[in-house]
Automatic annotation (TrEMBL):
Full protein name: HTH CENPB-type domain-containing protein
One family name in Pfam for this protein: CENP-B_N
Domain HTH CENPB-type: from-to ranges: 63-131
CC terms in the record's Gene Ontology section: nucleus
Molecular function per GO: DNA binding
Native source species: Acanthoscelides obtectus (Bean weevil)
Amino acid sequence: MSKRKHKTLSLAQKYEIIQKLDNGRSPVQLVVEYGVGRSTITDIKKKKTQIAEYMNSHQQQTTNLTLKTAKHPNVETALYTWFLQQRTKNVNISGEILHEKAKFFYEEITGLCGKFWLLTVTGEKLSSNFAAVDPFQKLFLNKVREMNLGPEQVYNADESGLFWRALPNKTLVHKQT
């Protein structure tokens, strides 16, 4: 007997499988209908709530194949929010700018940010007052703690723009809904 060919189901198909299981269809029937293994049907059944929540909240985006979560969701949220802000200003953003901004948010949110790295990202060496940096950082961190702010509530932006997964020298246009 030959080995079954690998088949990847979209989230919409997985959602259909969940609905059919809820309506009383047997997993064996679905294995035959979709051409997947029984373990695939079992895995879909285990992720039932996650798939249903995603499909209910993303009605128009049903072409996704997986439910991958971000490694650093706070960074993703900050990056996407900043991206949308820049798009409302009609700022074109290159892949390089996006990459730098992603690095910036990662360093800020995870607390792995060093002074040298900040200076190289902003590129404003001549206009910076180096003597004011340390006192400001301490004052700022105290204020953040005092106000009980989470990382997703603290932003920093300059004139740059942001495009997610854009190649260098190209830009993305966010689909406005």
